[in-house]
Amino acid sequence: GQSLEQPSEVTAVEGAIVQINCTYQTSGFYGLSWYQQHDGGAPTFLSYNALDGLEETGRFSSFLSRSDSYGYLLLQELQMKDSASYFCAVRGLTGGGNKLTFGTGTQLKVEL
Amino acid sequence: NAGVTQTPKFRVLKTGQSMTLLCAQDMNHEYMYWYRQDPGMGLRLIHYSVGEGTTAKGEVPDGYNVSRLKKQNFLLGLESAAPSQTSVYFCASSYSKGTIIRNEQFFGPGTRLTVL
Q: From CA B17, how far away is CA B80, in angstroms rounded?
């Protein structure tokens, strides 16, 4: 199976840069994904890393190092609307159906 | 497109009652999923379906049943509700090709269920 660990909470100020880490244990997987969830809302897809390295999408970037079983989500120029929970997720090599295993989530609080 | 919709949005049950949660998607997705989300536990997969007429167990299937009679609908049933099933339930869907490469799933707005 797979297991993923994330910090439970991170606090940062508006305009700053914050990094949310994700470490995982899996025998193999099809890349690392990140989802955002605002309070009371549904999770929404943010980014995906199939290979080692950095992927950039606007203010958000995501990084993966398969050799270190580690990834992170980087949020730049933080805005109040970025206050949300962020989940990393992997899809294992075995079984079908694009099943995902999610981390327990990191709650990001952006302060003025 | 409405995307993924769920009914009802809220529900309160008494222990032992039964209910069915309905999920519908209009994106012609092959795969559909039911998750539960509890504080500090993240999203846990209950059951999933890779196509019409097929279902499979996820990580926490006990106490739940599912059916996928039509491609666009995925039903989650609780035959005898227990307080431990108090949770927020999310339905999701994904393509069988294309965005499956990105591990992308599309989620509904959730159903908040309380079992007393």
A: 5
